[in-house]
Every structure is written in structure tokens, then in C-alpha cells.
Amino acid sequence: MNDLLNNFFDWQLIRQVLPDLLTYGLRNTLVLAVSSALLGSVIGMMLAIMGLSHRRWLRLPARVYTDVFRGLPAALTILIVGEGVFSAQISWLASPYPVAVLAMSLMAGAYIGEIFRSGIQSVEKGQGEACRALGLTHGQALRLVVVPQGVRRVLPAMVNQFIGIIKDSSLVYFLGLVTTQRELFRIGQDDAVTAGNLSPLLATGLCYLLLTVPLTHLVNYIDRRLREGSRPVVTAEEPSPVEPKEALA
């Protein structure tokens, strides 16, 4: 029992690894996650619009893209994209960081596209008909009315997807990172291998919880506010005026 506790709760090792985790490890993880989420949102919105198009030549590529990147394991996608970019010898993608952001964005775009598509489809058809009655084109109706409402409805799912991106960032170590480029998982893994102890990985897990637990509660808060906002406001009915009794003759 003591060996088990020492293997996971060596506080000296945890104190040694925490400075690296909280300085460049946490920073690098957030850079990867935020960059991938932003680029993935752009890709996802394009896929959602294409998937809802009446033109088959737009719907089919969006469907194939979504099926492929949702079906492949994240580690395999990162390796395939990384090896492909490095083989092509693209100068501005020579660093592992742009390659990691590209790979994670391609994966995130497939999931975010489905989130956006479901949100847009949840908007009542009467909204689009009202826009056409006002003289708006289909594109204007989507941009000004339908898409903003759909995005608002899928905010909890978007935050959940961002949590997934944070955790998927632990796989970029496959691409090879120098010391200052290491994210949370790679720092914990390297220190655990060096010390022959799993306490650095436990500290890494605590850092991931520091990021994901507040976001989880944020999801619940947003979802609760959206549900409360969608409930109809019930007001007490005003009492009908009582007709005055006729004066006694």
C-alpha cells in the first residue's frame, strides 16, 4: 500500500514538475486548444452551410469530410497530417505547432459542423419564411436571422467540444516537440519516465481538471440559462371588471 501511495503521491516530485506545468505547459495547451477551436469553428460553419445546401455537389463533400474525420482516431489523424505535411516540406508548416493546430482543426471542424447544422435546423421554418416575406435572400436570412439563433442554441455543445479539444491536445507529442513546446501531457510523461514515478502524471491530471471542470460547470450554467430563457413568461390574469349592479328601482 505504501509503494502504491509513493508511486502516485510523491509530493516532492509534484512540486518539482508544477512550475513547468503551470508556465509553458499550460500556456502551450491553451494555445493549441484555442487556435484549433477557432479554426475548427470556421471549418465547421462552412461544413454546416454546405450540408444544408439544396445542391448535391455541396452536400456530398461535406458529408464525406464529416464521416472521414469523425471516423478516424485522433492519434491516427494527427500522425497522417503530420507525416503528410513534413513529407511535402512546406516551409511555413515546418514547426510541429502549426501542424498540430491544422490536424486538430480538421478533426474539430467535423464535429463542430454537425453541432452547427443541428442548431440551424432547430430554428423554426417560420423564421425563414418571414425573412423571405420581408424580401431577404436565402443567404441574408441565414446570415442575419437563422445562423445567430442556431449558434446560440448550441453553445453548451460547443463548450463541450472545446473540452474535448483540450484533452486531444495531449496527442500532439507524436509530432515531436522541443522542451519549450511541450504541452501538459508531454511534460508529465517526460518527468514520470525520468523519475520512474507516476506522480508527475497525477500533477498533469490535476492541471487538466483545472481547465475542464470550470468549463463543465460553465456548460451547465449556459444550458440552464437557455432553458430558463425559453420558458414562456406566465403572468397573472387581470381580473375582469365587475359590472356595477343596477340600481334598485
TrEMBL record:
Molecular function, one GO term: transmembrane transporter activity
TM spans (from-to): 30-52, 72-91, 201-222
Taxonomy of the source species: Bacteria, Bacillati, Actinomycetota, Actinomycetes, Kitasatosporales
KW Membrane (keyword) present: yes
Family affiliation: Belongs to the binding-protein-dependent transport system permease family. HisMQ subfamily.
Name by which UniProt lists this protein: Amino acid ABC transporter permease
Main location, first listed in the record: membrane
Cross-referenced CDD domains: TM_PBP2
